Amino acid sequence: MDFPIGLDPYTARQHLLHHTFSPLISIQSSHNADAFFQNILHNEHISTSQVFKPYGNNAKYTIPNQSFKIINNQLITKNYPSFPVRFEPSLPELLSVFNASSTNSTNTSAGITSISESGLKSSQLSQLFSISSLELLLKHSSKDTAEKDLYLHFFNKIITSNRIVPFETFNHPISQVFVVEYERDSLDLLRRLIVDFRNFSFPKFFQIDDLLIHVFIIYDSNKVPNNEVISFQNQIKSTLSINSTAFPIAETKDTQDNFIKMSIIENSTIEEDLQRISLQQSSTTTPNYIHIPKSADAVIRTKLYEYINKYLIPHMQSKIRFWDDQMLQPKKSITGRFFSASRKFFNNNSSDSNLSNVTSLSSSSGLNSASFNYHENFYYKSTPEQTIRKLADWSLILKDFKYAYSTYDLIKKDYTNDKAWVYVASTQEMCIVSLLLAQTQQVNLNPIQPDKNTLRKIRHDIIEPYIDNLSYTFKSRLNLKSYSLKTLTIVVELLLCMCSTFSISWWWNDLIEKYLLKLVSEFDSHLIANNQRSQVIRAILYERLGYSFGKCNFLSDENRHLLHFDAASQFHSKQELSEEEELGEEGEIGFYKNPNKLHAPQNNGLDGLMRYRKSSLWYLLSIREWVPLKNYRQIEYLLNNIKLVYNIEDIKDVWHDREDILLGVVKRILDKHERNIVA
Amino acid sequence: MSSYYFSIIGTRDNPLYEVEFSSFKSSSSSSSTPPGISQFTDSVKEILPFVSNSSLDLIEDAQWSTSQFNLGRIDSFYGLLVYAFITQGNIKFILCFESSTTNNGNVTQKYDENSIKQFFIEINDLYVKCLLNPFYAVNDAITSPDFDLKVKLLAKKYL
C-alpha cells in the first residue's frame, strides 16, 4: 500500500532534469512569423515563442518511437526516450527584463542591504526569486491546484528560472533560433536580424561563439511547393552558413475536432505566473490554453525532434569534446598541475591587489592570474574557468553525471584559489547535485546499495560541508538567500530518491529532517522580516517532513515481509491479536485462561522501525497551518495520511479527540464545516 | 523557569496520566507568575500529547539498543526536549520541557539530566505501587489524587 500519499521524489528528480538542467533555446521571430501563427491558430494574442514553448517538453509532447542518441566523452552511446529543451525569448529580451527588475528591486531593498556592502559586493547579482511572491502565488494556487500536486508546484517554482547569471551556465542559451516566414520574409531580413543580434552588447561573461545559430522556416504547405523552400534553405546555408529547419504548416478547416488543446503555461517562473494571474483578474482575454491544429501539431513535434537530434545534440557534443581537449586535459596534465600549484604559491600578492585595481579582464600571461573580475563577480567569457564550468554544465545536461561531477570537483579548486566565492558556492551545489544524480540514475532494476564507506564519504566529506559552506556564502557573503534555499530543496528531494532506491532511510533521514527544518526557518525569518506570515510555504514543508518520515523505514531486507497494512485498522493502535489466534491449540476448554493477560500487538516486529507517529505529528502541524486559511480539501487530504496512527473517521472518546488538543480541534472544525454545507 | 509536560503512556499508546507544571526553582525572582504553573503557550499545549506520542517511535527504537531503563534525551522538537524512561512492563514515562536559557549551559544540562533520571526512578517506584493495587489494571488511566500529589511533590523536589 502506498502510504503516505505524496509526491514521489523521482517525479521531482525528473522535473529537475526537465525544467532546470535542460538546454535553453532562445527564440526570436519575425513579425510575419508571428502573424502566420496568429492566422493559423485564430488567436490574435499569440506569439511564435508561446507556440513553441510547450513543445520544448518532449517528454510530454512526444512523437512515436522517439529516442535521442547521446554520445558521451568516453564515446559510449546511450539512447534516451526524451530530451526536453526550454524555449525562452531571445537573450537581449531576457536581459532587458532582468535589468529593469533588478534596478527596481535594488531601489526597494535598499533598506536591507547597507550601501557600503552592496557597493563592495556585486551590484548585479540579485535574488533568484522573491520569497514573498512565492508565498503569494502558492496561497493563490492552493485554492485550485490538486492537493497532491501542491508540493510539486512549490518545487517547480523554486527550480524554474530563466535568470542569467555568470556563475552557472544552465540559463545561458545554447542555441539561438530565428523564426521566419518563407513567403513574406526575405534573406535580407534574416541577415539583418542576425546582424542586429550579433551586435548586441552581451554581458562579458557570456560567450556568443558557443551559440548554435539556427533558422526555422515556416511556410504554408498548401501554397508553397517544397522545393522552393529547399532552395531557400540552401541559399541560407551558402550565404550565411547557417543550418535551417523547415516547418510545413497547412491551414485547416475550423472544426473543433481538428484542434489540440495545449497549455501555454509550461515552465513559467513565479513572476510570470503572478503577472498572468493579475492580468486574468483584470481581463478575460488571456486564456491558459491555445488550440493548435492537429496537422501543425504533428509537424512541430517531428521537426523539433529532428532539430534536437540533428543539430542541437551534436553541437553540444562537439563543443564538449573540444573543451575537454583544449581546456580540461591540459589542466589535468602534469604541467597543468604544476602551473596551478605555482600559481597558488606565488600569486598571493596579485590577487590582493586585484581587489583594489578593479578590472583586468584579459590577462596576457598564460596563467590567467587575474581573470576573475572581483568588482562585478565574474570570469571573463574566454577564460578557462568560465569555459570549464560550461563544459561541466553541458555534460550534466547531456546526462553524463559522473563526468560532470569530476569536472566540477576539479574547477572548484581554481575558484577557491581565486576567492571567487559565488562560483565556489554554485560549483559546490552542482557537485552535490551531480553526485546525487549519478547515484540515483537507475540503470538496472536491482541497484546495488553503495557501501558504507562511500556513503560516509558522500555524507561527511561532500554533502554536509558543502551545504554549510554554500549556505554561508550565499547568505552572509552575498546576501542571496534564495539560491541556498533552492539548493536545499533540490538536495532534499535527491536524498529522498536515494532513500527510496536503496532503502537506506536510516542513513539520510536525520539530514533530510535537518535541511527541511532549515528551509522552514529560513522562509519564516525572511517573511516575518517583511511582515508576512509564511503559512502556505510552511504548511507545504511540514507536509514534506511528514512524507519523508512516513516513507522512512529501518527494516532490513529479510524483514520486509513483516510490513503489512490493514487499511481498516490503525497501525499503532496496538490492536491485539484475537484470542483464538493467540491461544492456538492450547486454548482448549478446561485450561485456565488469565483474562488480564496482555496480548502481543499487531505489527509487534516493527516496533521502532517505522516513523509513522513522527510523520503524523508533522502532518498535524501542516494541517494546523491550513486551518486559518479554511482550505478544507487540503486538510482532509492530509488527514488521510495520518489514518494509520489516529482514527480520523469520527470523534470518539479517546485521548487524541479531546477538544483541547489539535486533532480534536481540527475534527470539530471539519465537522462544523460539513454540517454548514449540509444546512 | 522552564515548563514541563509529563505523561505516562500505556502499552497501547494510550496516555495513562499527564500533568503540566513548571520548575519551582528560581521562581522567587519572577513574582508575576505563581510557581508551579506551566508557561506553555496555547499553540504548544495543543500539540504536547502528539509530541510525546511521536517520540514513541524513537523510544521503541532506542529501547533495543540499551539495557538501561532510563533512555535519556531521545528527541528534540523546536526547542522542546524529550526525555524518556521505559519500565519493565513496557510503560513509557515521557517528559517534555522547554529548554531553559541558562548562562552556563553545560553544567546545568548535566545536572538536569541527573535530576530527571532521579525523577524517573522515583516515579517508577510510585507507578509500581500503583500497579500493586488490586483494583488497578494495566492500561487504565491513573486517577488517584494521591498519585497526582506525589508526582507533583517529586517534580518540586527534582525539577
From TrEMBL, chain A:
Name the GO cellular-component terms: TRAPPIII protein complex
What protein am I looking at? Answer: Trafficking protein particle complex III-specific subunit 85
Provide the organism lineage as a comma list: Eukaryota, Fungi, Dikarya, Ascomycota, Saccharomycotina
UniProtKB/TrEMBL annotation, chain B:
User: Entry's SUPFAM superfamilies?
Assistant: SNARE-like
Cellular component annotations (GO), alphabetically ordered:
TRAPPI protein complex; TRAPPII protein complex; TRAPPIII protein complex
**Which CDD domains would you find in this protein's record?**
TRAPPC2_sedlin (cd14825)
Q: Which InterPro entries does this UniProt record tie to the protein? A: Longin-like_dom_sf, Sedlin
**A matching Pfam family:** Sedlin_N
Q: Name one GO biological process term.
A: endoplasmic reticulum to Golgi vesicle-mediated transport
Query: Coiled-coil intervals in this record?
Result: none
How is this protein named in the record?
Transport protein particle 20 kDa subunit (TRAPP 20 kDa subunit)
Organism encoding this protein: Scheffersomyces stipitis (strain ATCC 58785 / CBS 6054 / NBRC 10063 / NRRL Y-11545) (Yeast)
* Species classification: Eukaryota, Fungi, Dikarya, Ascomycota, Saccharomycotina
Q: Which gene encodes it?
A: TRS20
